[in-house]
Predict the 3D structure of the following.
Amino acid sequence: MNRPPSNYIVVSSADLRNFLFALFQKSGVPEDKNQYLTECLIENELRGVYSHGSRLAIQYVNQFKNGELNPIAAVQVVEDSPAVLTIDGGGGLGYFPAAEL
């Protein structure tokens, strides 16, 4: 179960949204993907799913910086048949290929 941390600072969703957007922008995430990623993290926070919220931002930024994740990954359909859809996420975060389904 997701529980709020014992020590925390209350931040408005608007301030957090602005901070995350600026953070991902400096990491090279294109504006459209940045808006979607920021909204996903904010929505998770607001739903109380802290494990998949803003706490992941520093991890994502470090992975972009270290070349472990591609901030400008292009999503491509590799195979589309009646039984299987194979999508290549281009080495980026899974949010983006999942959103294109």
